[in-house]
Amino acid sequence: MELNSPYLWMNGERSKPLMDSMGITHHGRTETLDRALTDFGIEHSFVQASKRFEEHYGFTISPTTVDRVTKESALGCQSFVEERLQSEKDGCRQAPKANGLSEPMLIELDGCEIRTGTFAPAEDDLQGGPPNRKKILAWRDVRVGLARPMSAKSKLYVAQMEKYPEVMAQLFSVATMLGMSQKTDVVAVADGGQGLREGLENQFPNMQFILDKPHLKKHLYETAAALGCNEEQQRQWVHAKLDRISEGAAGEVLKELKVQNMTEPNDRLRQFIGYLSRFQDAVDYDRFKELGYPIGSGEVESAHRSIPQKRLKLPGACWHPDSINPMLALRVVRANEWWNDYWAHRTAATTMAA
Fold first, then answer.
1. Which of 100, 113, 175, 294 fits a 20 to 30 Å CA distance from 134?
2. Is the pLDDT of residue 89 over 90?
């Protein structure tokens, strides 16, 4: 809206009523408007969000404004999430829960890639004109984790870019929110990424790690191909090995593979032997299924599609690295149903500052 702002002067004192009494400033926005723009901006491209806003409210807001407002909200949301999780973690340290869940807590953690772009100065052109800027594209790893009591459907999510330790610390906090105590058993399902299992064990001492079965199957196929098996031989070899491993015979399979590698040395087979040895206690899939544990990380892979990828991996999308974690925080707040809490927190902070 457009308003004429009077400027008053009396007895040596000035006043701008719109600004002083009503808080209306040039290009100012209400909290309600910021919330609406952010609501569209975290679900759609900023161009599409601008169009959706006009369709719903009848006002034209430029895509650059939607971009700016959404990212400003995202920064505030990132601080809100960090403070909330840190407060939960500190509270647990000061007064650990003596009694918690009587059932295990499920933890899943996995990664995906988001495309980023930064600009770097390029060499001056040959005509002596101003220097050009070179766009540097890269793919960066985003880690997403979830926690839920084993029999529950509701869960809490966390997400960070390239920071496994931070994601694991946040997982501990959301698991605590869901009732985990020092005596709660934890079941963690993840792939065999370097240091992933060890990092989870540091956060969750009472943990049974389960190696994601599709990842083990993929490694088996790669090993069979390296051994020179044709397509049908690969299928038979993989399923024979995988069935026995699932039945609890991983130790026997390892012995056979070691003998095979001694008679027919193969680098890929040697690598797989080390891989399976590392996760020998995490591949007893039939027993895990009898206990009601998942043997694949399908839940967190679905979370990748709904949290980071749905917004940050739109066709042609490219993000500055500094924008990714704040935008992930917005997506996590929506997924965790903390949306109203965040805006109430923000409104209260704005009121106190005023």
1. 113
2. no
